[in-house]
Design goal:
By secondary structure, this protein is an alpha/beta fold. Helix content is about 30%, strand content about 20%. It contains 14 helices and 21 strands. The chain starts with 7 loop residues before the first strand and ends with a helix.
Length: about 500
């Protein structure tokens, strides 16, 4: 297409608890969106399921409504998704054979432990391989049925093309996400597939993150589907982090720090020494570009706890207002480990810890301590990424629901000693998938064009004179007290 022609892109962005279908213009501005809640079900502790057929219906409904709401045709479609959630469906009928298994589902912990003990394989229950094996083993008689496996991107692409394509991109099909590829992402890991009884015929074709893979015949005008990419990778691109050394932080329910390194592909499937993972940031021209990812298991969840369980704030936004009524935490420290600790510890038995309380402690101190605790955990992620990659970071781009909290942003700048640049939208994933769709149809000519579109809504620099050494030392002491609260869970190592 001509670069002077106005373009509109439909982006389907599927998260853990809901989805949006957004219309993005060729400046990556969201001009309209439709949101549909779709929280997973939790039938028992540790089980996280979703209805894949209902998800498909919601995507079609939201996408059709979004297209109908704008006055120009859609040029192309991009799909981005939270990674590792698993769907298996019948190729002939398009019907799922069982529940979709969410990325948080823990029913296959035993299989992961056995794989570690038997083969030395580092497979975590959030990865797709054991979820797929579980569905194949627990969905009745499947003899003679032609089945398809996919992460959410593959399922949505299948839905939008009326079953014409069964594909996924290199970020969603990476070993980091699925546990089924060789370390460098160039092929399926035959030994792992054989061990878990998985026939390669069930797996999707792996394609580039940007490129036309078919047409969305289920939508008006049958626009081309031109981008597939995992959510954190889409967020990187949406915030213009395409040059080695650039980093972004997404703070939603949990937290993800992602860094572009351009390093060679990994040769081993294992966690890095400081607790990060090798991350394929995108696939173009058949080649993966690499970075690193550090993970915080609970971020915004801690503010939800203040609101929904303690009842000391009425809304998430109020956490900023309440925290601003005091100048400091007055010695109170909070470790946000409600679900354990991710990078660098990977201590599933750690728990949230509130220290330094006195008779003078009030709700403002506690609220501020929670926000500062999230900021310090982010600093832990940054320190781990630097240790594992050797890349020094002086600025971080920030998106996600917590990015609109000024107290958190300021605390993050102080804890990390970095300049924080806040995304103009909390959903940078949508921008990233929209850009990749536009790249595929000629709206842009090079991946690096996205960097020219980055315009932060706010920036925050470290406060001059802050004694970071002292605050980080106190934080380290508090972190030590939060560790191994449940020793049996702390002993788990995936």
């Amino acid at each position: 297409m001509n670069s002077d022609t106005a373009a509109r892109f439909l982006v389907v962005d599927v998260g853990t608890t809901g989805l949006r279908a957004a219309i993005v213009d060729d400046d990556l501005e969201i001009v309209h969106y439709e949101y549909r809640p779709n929280p997973p079900s939790r039938p028992f502790d540790g089980l996280v399921e979703f209805d894949a057929a209902r998800l498909a219906d919601l995507v079609l409904d939201a996408s059709r409504a979004a297209i109908a709401a704008v006055d120009s045709p859609v040029t192309a479609v991009g799909i981005t998704n939270q990674r590792a959630s698993t769907v298996v469906w019948d190729r002939a009928t398009g019907e799922p054979i069982g529940p979709g298994l969410g990325w948080q589902d823990l029913r296959t912990i035993t299989e992961c432990i056995v794989a570690k003990a038997t083969h030395g394989w580092s497979i975590a229950p959030n990865q797709s391989i054991t979820k797929l094996a579980w569905l194949l083993a627990n969905s009745g008689d499947l003899a003679g049925r032609d089945l398809c496996f996919g992460t959410i991107d593959a399922w949505i692409a299948w839905t939008l093309t009326d079953g014409a394509v069964h594909v996924s991109d290199g970020t969603n099909m990476s070993t980091t996400t699925t546990g089924m590829r060789v370390a460098g992402g160039s092929a399926w890991a035959a030994d792992r597939l054989a061990e878990f009884g998985i026939d390669e015929a069930i797996l999707p074709q792996v394609v580039d993150s940007s490129g036309i893979i078919g047409h969305a015949t289920a939508l008006a005008g049958a626009p081309p589907i031109a981008a597939l990419i995992g959510d954190q990778q889409a967020s990187l691109i949406g915030q213009g982090c395409v040059r080695p050394g650039t980093a972004k932080l997404t703070l939603g329910t949990g937290g993800m720090l992602d860094l572009v390194t351009g390093a060679p592909a990994p040769t081993e499937i294992e966690r890095n020494p400081a607790g990060t993972y090798a991350l394929p940031t995108w696939q173009l021209g058949g080649e993966l570009t690499w970075g690193a990812e550090a993970i915080m298991l609970s971020a915004g969840t801690n503010v939800d706890w203040l609101r929904d369980d303690l009842g000391i704030i009425q809304s998430s936004a109020q956490s900023h207002d309440v925290a601003q009524t005091c100048d400091s935490t007055d010695g109170v420290v909070y470790v946000p480990a409600l679900l354990g600790l991710g990078t660098p510890d990977w201590d599933y038995g750690a728990r949230g810890t509130l220290l330094g309380l006195t008779r003078g402690t009030n709700r403002a101190h506690i609220v501020r301590a929670v926000l500062e605790g999230v900021a310090h955990r982010c600093a832990d992620l940054l320190d781990a990424a630097t240790a594992d990659t050797g890349v020094e970071i002086d600025s971080i781009r920030l998106d996600g629901g917590m990015s609109v909290n000024p107290t958190l942003v300021a605390a993050l700048a102080d804890a990390t000693d970095c300049r924080i640049e806040v995304s103009p939208t909390t959903e940078a994933t949508t921008r990233g998938a929209g850009f990749l769709a536009g790249l595929a149809v000629g709206r842009w000519t090079d991946l690096h064009d996205v960097a020219t579109l980055w315009r932060p809504s706010a920036t925050s620099a470290p406060t001059p004179g802050v004694d970071r050494s002292t605050t980080r030392t106190r934080w380290t002491d508090a972190l030590e007290r939060a560790r191994t609260w449940h020793p049996d869970l702390s002993a788990l190592d995936f």
